[in-house]
Amino acid sequence: xEGYECGTLVAALRELMENFMSIERIQQHFRDSAAIKLDAxxxxxxxxxxxxxxxxxxxANNGKVLVCGNGGSAADAQHFAAELIGRFERERPGLPxxxxxxxxxxxxxxxxxxxxxxxxxxxxxxxGQPGDVLLAxxxxxxxxxxxxxxxxxxxxxxxxxxxxxxxxxKMNEVLFDTDLHICVPSDRTARIQEVHLLTIHxxxxxxxxxxxxxxx
Length: 216
Known about the structure:
Rossmann fold; 5-stranded parallel β-sheet; 60% helix
């Protein structure tokens, strides 16, 4: 009986310790996220403001925004397009944006008939027009299909806004002086994606502010 009680106590203590470690690990995620966001806010406010001006200028002149990315960045691309076409926080007319990540028939046809690295660039070639903007999202800055989309956007006389991290990777080599690079100062993918999402919300809020005025 005493052995059973001792074993139960040890198990309870172990569970308590595991819960404590789990809580500490979760809280560390929040602390890390807050720290990188504060750092990024200091460094990236100016390029984000410039990106808002670029996006608003395109939309105000009957242009549109094409958005691309892979994995979590694909989800961010769809998120941004949804906020523009629907709304962000205030009612307004829909704004033209297309996430190049959503049509499974187009994506699989291009990947199968040509090459996976062309899944975005061929769409940019078909849909992009001078004066449009490509929002290119890649945490590493080196996703080949996103870089190919950037090359094609330049061929179509489009401006590129790149959201990256990890020093910017190969994106540093392909952007023009007229493009904008918003590079999160982190090497950790989760933290980069968290700042990308906040950046997207800043872009949406900035566009709405220019359209509708500041909140009262």
